[in-house]
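Module 6 notes. Inverse folding takes a fixed backbone as the condition and produces residue identities as the prediction. Think of it as a translation problem where the source language is geometry and the target language is the twenty amino acids. Below is one complete input and output pair. Work through it position by position during the lab.
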């Protein structure tokens, strides 16, 4: 998928949405807030803590926690898969930076995506994997999480020209597949049993680790991405100096 590979489907949706940009400052600022705030991820991950500490019988608690752990593993696998695809597939310029799309960017929209390939959407992949995992705990909560992912997480990224619609659709499909697979594969039993054993023998260290993991999910691993970027730049600079 090359930098100019925008389908008629992508362009029709982008141009239709782009016609609303600038009509209402309140609409633009609200969507820009949704695209940039960490509250969207924090609200999503708070559901995990709610279910983790929900009071019910022992068997249900164990089953619920097993699915929550499986889903967190799915989220990690999903974001890794998205990054591998973004780095190995042909680079796709985001619609806001593609001159042929003629995209009008809202005034306050974030601009730090120039060097990142558009396909697939990391947000769609990760949050859809997490949402599908919730379906195995409560199908109502899972469906609400999927709706939240589509409207609150993904829609603003299309509206602001950060992604093409097909970036998001492919991301949703990939993430949902990973979330489903991790929830049903027997091989995951080993990981969840070890994690629950850790929780029972050393709850302090376990909950510190679990908090850090959910924090990174809520912030889309921004701190790790920044650290990786700085490390890459430092290594590149060192290589240039040495050579």
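Target side of the pair, the amino acids:
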């Amino acid at each position: 998928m090359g930098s100019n590979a925008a389908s008629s489907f992508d362009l029709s949706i982008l141009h239709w949405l782009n016609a609303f940009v600038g009509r209402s400052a309140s609409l633009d600022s609200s969507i820009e807030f949704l695209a940039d705030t960490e509250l969207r991820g924090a609200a999503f991950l708070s559901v995990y803590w709610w279910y983790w500490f929900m009071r019910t019988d022992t068997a249900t608690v164990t089953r619920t926690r097993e699915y929550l752990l499986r889903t967190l593993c799915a989220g990690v696998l999903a974001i890794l898969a998205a990054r591998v695809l973004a780095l190995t597939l042909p680079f796709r310029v985001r619609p806001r930076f593609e001159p042929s799309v003629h995209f009008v960017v809202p005034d306050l929209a974030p601009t730090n995506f120039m060097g990142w390939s558009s396909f697939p959407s990391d947000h769609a992949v990760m949050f859809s994997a997490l949402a599908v995992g919730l379906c195995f705990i409560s199908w109502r909560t899972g469906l609400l999480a999927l709706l939240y992912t589509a409207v609150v997480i993904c829609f603003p990224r299309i509206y602001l020209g950060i992604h093409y619609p097909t970036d998001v659709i492919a991301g949703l499909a990939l993430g949902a597949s990973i979330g489903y697979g991790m929830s049903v594969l027997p091989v995951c039993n080993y990981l969840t049993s070890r994690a629950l054993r850790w929780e029972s023998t050393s709850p302090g260290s376990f909950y510190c680790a679990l908090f850090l993991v959910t924090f990174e999910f809520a912030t889309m691993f921004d701190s790790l991405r920044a650290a990786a970027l700085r490390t890459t730049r430092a290594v590149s600079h060192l290589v240039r100096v040495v050579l």
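Reference fact for the lab report: The chain has one domain: 8-242.
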